[in-house]
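[User] Could I get a sequence and structure tokens?

[Assistant]
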Amino acid sequence: MNAGNRLKRGPYRIGIAGEWALQDLYVYPRAFGQLYSFMYAITTGRVVPPLDEEVGDETENPLFSHPWIGGYSTVNFFGYVTSSVSRSHRPRLLSMQYASPGWIEFAVVLSAASAVSLLVARFTKVGHQLNDLYNAIYKGLHDRKMMQMDVRERALSLEREELKFLEESTNKMAEMMGFENVAELNRLTGNPIATLKALLAVYRRVKALGKYELSGKAKLP
């Protein structure tokens, strides 16, 4: 796909139905926006740092190479990724209708939004298997004491078995999710632990959107 097609903007209408609470109007757009920003960075290769950050070597990019200690680091990760999307490419609300069948329509970079749709569609087909795999990988990370340590330091002392676990877990999760950009994610993180943790964080957002899809409350194009 050439650069022009990767950055083509257009309307993207999400169908909504049923009864939505105010919380839904926060949870759903937030998860969609985080996934959109992540897939924008991955599929377009356009990773722009926040205004107060300086970027040197790509493997030291502050958007991707941070400690990954606990849930707060996940929030930081998506905050960084969201701020990396150029302002002209961030989702912009075009219209919304609540009366069923309704919609929420955004102006987006279509390649990034479509990539989100594909991940969610995949979850609706193999969600149970994905959840079992996620739980097994999470337990493996916990058993190997990789959850609460600075991944930048931990990555320097990985043993062969641990590297094998990380690579196999990443590949299994990516394949089952339908995520085809592991090489690009590895390039951006420069760290196998960070790659896996990023992918697991992405899965949690996909799962959140997938629940709306399965309940019939939302339908991605």
